[in-house]
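anyone else get weird line breaks when pasting these?? whatever heres mine. first is seq + tokens for prot A
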Amino acid sequence: FFANFCGALYTQRPPHSASAVTRAAARGGRAGDMSIRLRELIRNVRSCKTQADERACIHKECASIRTAFKDENNELRHRNVAKLLFIHMLGYPTHWGQMECLKLIAGSKFLEKRIGYLGLMILLDERQEVLMLVENSLKNDLQSSNQYIAGLACCAIGNISSAEICRDLSPEVEKLMVGSNPFVSKKASLCCIRILRKCPELCDTFLERIGTLLGSRNHAVLLTCLKLMREMCITEPAMIEQLRRHTPTLIAALKNLVLSGYAPEHDVHGIVDPFLQVEILTMLRVLGRGHSETSDQMNDILAQVATNTESAKNAGNAILYECVLTIMAIEVESGLRVLAVNILGRFLINRDNNIRYVALNTLHKVIAQDTQAVQRHRNTIVDCLKDNDSSIRQRALELVYALVNEANVKVLVKELLSYLLACDVEFKDELTQRICTVVEKFSTDKEWHVDTIIQTLSASTSFESEETVCSMIALITSTPELQAYATHKLYAKLADQTNQPVLLQLAVWCVGEYGEMLIGGVPAGVEAEAPDPQTVVELLTSVMRSPVADVTTKEYTINAFVKLTTRFANAPDSLALIHKQLAAYSCSMSLELQQRSVEYSSLLKLDAIRAGVLERMPAFAKKDRQAAAAAAAQTAAATPT
């Protein structure tokens, strides 16, 4: 308000003239009369070239204002306070002018009161004791016959009043609420919101006035009354039960808005007062949540709003969105829920990205309530993954995760893989982890599971996850018919010189564990030929020399070397190369690699136990790390110190 006020003065009021200065001097030449106007101060500040020039200009004007304030009969006090507010907006101290605001409020002219109340709300707050001095002026202005003065007092109470002032002036505000003047009634209703926040015990006092306010035909009064009702529900949740008796009144008001014809004073793009409709729907949502009887009363009107509201304009979309939220929050028929989800589906094909984002966000919240209805819009949701807006893609991605089940996992994962190839680099690792989780959770085809994980990891070269390695190993060890297939598939990636850390570890582990399957024959579904033992060992040797292989991968590879001594027992050339590699790392700078090489070299000399130690790993189940961590934390908490 003050910015507009300053701008209006700056652009509209004429500059000082010599005659004006002469007239001021003739009136007595007081310092207050000689002060410049607000627009001139703004012009002077804007013309300053440096910060020092601005400070000098402000300090000079502050000195002039101080001198003017000393004059008790200063007729231009309101002008000086207005300049003081502008100076405050620039960040300079103005606390020394607070009392002048109180003097303006105590005046009789509306112009002075307007500037005084504006200064009061800007320069003071509820924690300052000087605010108590204005309480009597507030009380008098609340009883004023001038509606604008009463409105100013309500505005001040609603912004900066303390709990004591709210408690003392609540009777006057309550009277204004139910008065015949709608301008004052709406101001008083908004003022009551502040009173309730400061004095929750007064909630019962205003409860009796709600019915009177809802009976008003003025839309502004209805709007502020609904705001007050929501605040009462937040401040005192027990009030919801008592406010439910007004549900028929709210339904009738909403029905009148939906079915009424053109009303020029309330029309917004062909919609009758969308602000009031949104507030009524929000209040109905609060009253109907968890109460079947109240919800049943709303079924018809919600269906009318959903079917009769035009969605071509943003105002209509706002109403439809609130209608959807209300339907999903209360206890309604399943058909109405499907209608609400279909509205969100229409939002998804809207050209406005804001509307599409809201639709995706809301669908993600309601999918738990009606999964089948959301599934009908799966294709539209998947199309949002191709949107140019990254926020739309991210929300669509979250929704696709929630839609995946055993029936559609192959279709949706295919779309996710397409998105993985095109998404930004910073999202690849997170998306890869989620795809792996979805495949592990919902896959029913083991071979498809392996192929999809390999394809996903190949598309994200920097992704690292010990959890993914463990889950794949658990799957392979527990599925004997999958072991040969997985080993050949992973070996093919290893032969292609993959740099993906997880793929390297999985491939090396499978080659070491199931080496005889790798050279024994090619299973169905694999096109490559079976390699010979020498080629396999040389490939593992190249992994050990690879600059992209970390210490963990090299540890996996040394384990694979020692395992292959029993798998390739009939290949002396391969065994010699394995012994050479183990000996080479017996002097490694990595203590772990050195220890493994020395111990494995010693193990290979113990023919009696070597075969038993190096036999295949038994099947094991993947551990639930979150459950294990929670159990460990619970055990630690229960252990006495």
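and prot B, same format (seq, then tokens)
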Amino acid sequence: AALGRTPAARLLSSRTRASIPSLSPTGAQPLIAKVRNFPRVGLRMLSDTSKAEEKKPEEEQEAAKAEEPSEEPKPSVRGSEQAVGEESNFEFKTETRQLLDIVAHSLYHDREVFVRELVSNASDALEKARHTALTSNSGEDVGELNVTITVDPTDNLFAIHDNGIGMTKEELVENLGTIARSGSKAFINQMSESSAGQSDIASNIIGKFGVGFYSAFMVSEKVSVFSRKRGADKGHCWTSSPGTDNYTLSEAEGVEFGTKIILQLRADAKEFSSLSRIEEIVTKYSTFVGFPVLCNGKKVNEVQALWLKSEKEISDEEHSMLYKHISQDWEEPQYKLVYKTDAPLDIKSVFYAPKLNMEKFGMGKTDPGVHLYSRRVLIQSNAKNILPEYFRFVSGIVDSEDLPLSISRESMQDQKLLVKLQTVLTKRLIRWLEDEAKKDEKAYMDFYGNFGIQVKMGVASDFANQQALAKLLRFPSSAAPDSESTNFQAYVERMKEGQDTIYYIIASSRQVAESSPYYEAFKRAGLEVLYCYNEHDEIVLGNLQKFGDKQIKSIEVVEPPSLPNNENADGKEEEAKEALSEEQGKKLTDWMQDALGSRVTEVVTTSRLVDSPAIISEHDNVITRRMMQMQEFKQLGVDKPAAYKLLVNPTHPLVLALDKARESNPDTAKLVAEQILDNAVISAGILDDVRIMLPRLTDLMKAALDK
């Protein structure tokens, strides 16, 4: 369990992109081996230490203990404040008791969020104190404003104190005695009514619903609130316990300015008296609160809310710190974006693209990396609906004041607004990547090498943004060197006059693509062809179909533009070749169709081939063929591939020889015709099992040796 929290273990988490990404899969093995060996090494070290201690004489051990520095005293949860005088009893209203029960038992999904709510309330109180000091004529110096959390695991206590505005007796009754009565919300309304110029102050106030305080009842046996209004002589103590219908209020002495809440935790909530647990929760939810948060005297919110600052004011070091904080990556980000807008929604955000894709290293599917905040407080980590799934590699923070949150502040209520938020952010992120590609194509190709698969996923699934995403695609091309790639826009700019189609071919490599019989006619015509080395490109481009007003088609399914007989793309006349006459070609193709039977729908001659004897057309693509082999499709009776249309080159020497052999040696000619068909199927990359050819090849070799 302890190892699970070490950096060594986090190295292998799905969101971690540590130094493993900078290595090849082979190079990563030694590092992984070290991680796996960590428990054994650690245990051996501990064992060696224990043995050394056993050997040490008793007096040496005593001397060593005397030299050890003594522990610093822990901050006390209970300070000088204490209730004095007569207690006044107040009853919660009936509806308040009902709502209190809901808040304490079923409103929140996670009990840990009570820390978030109390820190948020404390931050609001500090903001009010700062605003009051700035706008009053008293000249009061509020000093250093902060939130202080102390815990005591021995007595199972949790306390949080802010030196903010504080509350009078009447305000304690008004704000704590009535649920959903939010002093923060009233303050925002007051600021909005008094002056439009106070909107920035109002936007820093976190609390909106007035129920956050009562989340403390989920984990407490008793809740005590000591508060003293700034400028007041007296403090007061408010006390209540879950399950009771009342609360008490009395004067208190020794109360500092601000508010202090002390929770006597329940036995099953002892985890919240652990300092490390509280630090973890504060770091998770309240890292970006605008005031220092101290846990037992240690500041835990060191990272700044960069998305609230001007982009020009943010240093690379600050970006690096924030990125590593939210992504758990050890590398620097590849790209960064600060995006703010107030229309159609108020959005303040920051996004980062990592350098490496950990999914490529078998780390599993990456969780969404964008976190949803409202007024600097975490609402939802790894939010799934902020960006589409294909952008799951992006890390970032989205902070919006327009979000209609549920009363628990754990989810959004307005799904239409969520869709609008996703639409705005998605369009901006696509434009961001397009801008980065324009600035530095080489750096973008490094990015595309890692995350091109996610871009393609977007093209195939996000029809609303399909054309914009298509601008991010990159492919090798017959018009570019092997080491370079091109994009659709560059292809369109190089098109021949009158050309209205972007051509591509699916192949495993450039060599395979350029040796394909389908490519011959396009090469002869001088037409650019994109090389797609991944089978899923067939699905991506099949879904895309168009780029702007240009069609996108595979050269396997379209006829190449015709050129005058015996001319190439340069208009030069080529040497005439021996060819079958139209009558001879018709007789040969009729014979081949009869010999091949149901495997073909038609056999015809073609002029599109240059160096190959035959190709097939009107065939299923590779993806469709593989789907047919799946058991689910076989059960539906669609496991048989469609028959082929065979196109024969009447100028090829093999075809000329076959025409003669069909009469002089019909048995061998039939074997050759079947092999020509299978060769054409292999050229199309869709032969299901090459082993079916082996007996025929044996017969052909035997026939060749018998001559």
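btw re prot B: The mean pLDDT is 81. The two ends are 77 Å apart (CA to CA).
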